[in-house]
């Protein structure tokens, strides 16, 4: 696979805009992690250095995915999916528990989250399925792929990991929309239903009684908000709101620096960034994400074949979903579910997986330009 | 570009759908942006405030309580730094290890420590384990603090009474504000844990002495650890008080009572200044101002001697024969008797079926007013009282301040009873019996008074009817301005009686000491006038006193003033269960008077020169 890189005019297909957008977002992530975890060491290595290490590993994954051929990768989709399902099963019995959920597998000194990698593998599986299977009728378009999604989804929800579970559904819905359903209307309703869920949520959620909310949250995600008083959500809103236009500056975020805001370097990193860099910083970060997704959609629309297009769509859908839900949740528009902000939140599995996905996306673009197929 | 495997229409369709996705993306991101604009720009200031509140805690800085001096600037109450040991359970790793460490280090009782650690309450709030630690213990703990996480030494201001038991009932004590007090408007600016006066002058002058708390803003993290601190407002110290008492005379009075139960009050008739006010048994305000255990408190409250009771202002006793002084004024002023008219005393007074006995078996023979006072003839006053009627007696008694508040600046003053027909109708719902007038005429029956009331009465007589409210505070030193504000004496009106009446009575009282019932008060140094009294505790047949158990023995009274010509001091001695006033009480009054007369010529200390010293 690697030989194709040298075969086809070195770095062709690599888009400087694409690379710089990714680097800029990663940079914001490292900066925020550095700011919020200053003086706080997990072992001896500071979090931001560890994140840089994850980014290094992620870059390697990026290059491998970019340099390989997605057609080859797609052929391994089903075995890989079986493998990851076994891993998810294994996690349930042997996994490390943190915040009331079993999500991590120990791997030497590190631990990783199979559910993160399951997302990318699901994209491969669905893209492979739709590009090969005859696509006539409801059964083949909706039900069969739905059955493919189901075991992974159930295993992830059992952990429980509501965030990853929702991502699974979002990926499925996005793929369904692009090729699965005839009616565009239904597809869009489905996709935007999921995307707009955060906005509708507040109305629905707000109308519930406290005990109802607590029951629901205890059911779907017992690890979060143990006090049941919306402490995390409130502290996060305070952090973002108090950033105002220009922010409090690096290390100036009192909410996060003084630990009122929990998970400042992982799921709530956006709140840290918003507190320290204000609305202007937020606009820049949103702009970077929109740019990245825009370029990704361009790759999808210009893909050489159905498989490439579907892969691109799946990756874009996952990216979009994570960005929107994470920001929506930190901004208090959504109940708190554990979804990290792609490329920004601290975390090995998510960072490596996201960068690998972006590498795969670039691979789709590269193949479009390749002379031999 | 177009794959041969798929029809073109399908790809075209995908392109169209991707455009839909783009629009949707912009829409959703736009909504996110709007939400963030709302949070950060529109509601930004609100959330900025919330974040400030989150991280800053307002810590009150307790003000230094005002000091208390005696009339000559001798320090009676101040504040000393005290070290207290606190434990925050949240930070304690192993409770049992900590208990062992503390017991070994400080010699504390392990069960007491364990109990304090196990009481309910927030784990985050430090709880006090020991107060009033020595500096040595405090440094010992401080040096081992790293081995004992959760342990903290706090420097606190502790009220201190250098004199110990001296003037305990006057000074009172301080304590943490109670839940009930917190709800009252006069404690509106105080908070849980504030120290307020709970008794005595500490209580009645609390507003002056408590000062105003300052404020410190500290930045804390989510766990409550202090990161930064800045003083916003300095606390304002409370005002100092200068009492009217003379600590030397006070000590003498207390020493005179010694182990006996009773009270001594000395005041200056010319302005109402209380020079000494002793009550025994007493308590140590230093102990009461600390955190008491329930057991300690019960011990104090259930003590049979009732040490918390200020017998001078709260003890109510029948005045006995000392009541003959206002009776004599009434007799002359109502012209019931002239100075020379006499009553024949045969040792008893027959009224109806009952014979009211004189204390002297056989009687005093023919006595006039002078004689009646000097020898304390009961029959004379039975007769006078019966002729005047209780309501006239009550009117004069009230004029002398009996049965009503003296207005002294002490909490919970008792008023005694000055009975009348209206009083009995109101309180007992019975009509007054004529025989009751006869008992009342010699200060028995329903009549009760406090020693302080009697001192005030004596002072009024000594001062020819001019009365001042007895007072304990004569100056307040304003810490903010540095001004010493002298409080004027408070006149309480004048008894409407002829000067001649007072002259006659004072003469008689002088003879009481020189040749009457109180010869043991006779002084070679100063002329003293006075009147003995014996307050019956239980109605007993006359007999040898030694046979009566002490708690049924009579109370001994002696009221006095000196010098007779120009009175400078009025003294009341009440000795519980000590029998006859002339024997038990009169010598004590004499000592107080002599000591005071010796103290007067000594140059009085000027307060303004003292105000700069002894600050803590």
Helix content of chain A: 55-70%
**How many structural domains are formed by the residues of chain B?**
2
**What integer value in Å does the Rg of chain B equal?**
36 Å
Report the average pLDDT across residues of chain B. 85
Describe the fold and architecture:
The complex is a heterodimer of chains A (373) and B (616). Chain A has 373 residues and is mainly alpha-helical. Chain A contains 15 helices and five strands. In chain A, the strands form two sheets. A three-stranded antiparallel beta sheet of chain A has the order 3-4-5, with helices on one face. A two-stranded antiparallel sheet of chain A has the order 1-2. With 616 residues, chain B is of the alpha+beta class. Chain B contains 24 helices and 23 strands. In chain B, strands 2, 3, 4, 5, 10, 18 and 19 form a seven-stranded mixed beta sheet that branches. Chain B has a five-stranded antiparallel beta sheet with strand order 12-11-23-22-21, with helices on both faces. A three-stranded antiparallel beta sheet of chain B has the order 1-8-9. In chain B, a hairpin with a 5-residue loop joins strand 2 and strand 3 (75-87). The longest helix of chain B is centred in the first third of the chain and has 35 residues, at 8-42. Chain B starts with 7 loop residues before the first helix and ends in a 6-residue tail after the last helix. The interface between A and B is large, with 57 and 45 residues.
Structure summarized in a few sentences:
The complex is a heterodimer of chains A (373) and B (616). Chain A is mainly α and 373 residues long.
SSE topology sketch:
The complex is a heterodimer of chains A (373) and B (616).
Chain A: H1 3-7, H2 16-36, E1 41-42, E2 45-46, H3 47-67, H4 70-75, H5 77-94, E3 96-98, E4 101-107, E5 110-112, H6 114-132, H7 137-158, H8 162-180, H9 184-206, H10 210-220, H11 231-242, H12 254-257, H13 269-301, H14 306-330, H15 348-369
Antiparallel strand pairs in A: 1-2, 3-4, 4-5
Chain B: H1 8-42, H2 44-55, E1 56-61, E2 68-69, E3 75-87, H3 95-106, H4 110-118, E4 127-133, H5 135-143, E5 151-160, H6 168-171, E6 174-176, H7 179-182, E7 195-197, H8 200-204, H9 206-209, E8 214-220, E9 226-233, E10 240-243, H10 247-257, E11 262-267, E12 274-280, H11 285-288, H12 294-302, H13 311-314, H14 324-333, E13 343-345, E14 348-351, E15 354-357, E16 365-367, H15 369-374, H16 378-388, H17 390-399, H18 421-427, H19 434-441, H20 451-462, E17 466-468, E18 473-477, E19 484-486, E20 491-494, H21 499-515, E21 529-535, E22 555-562, E23 569-575, H22 581-584, H23 586-599, H24 607-610
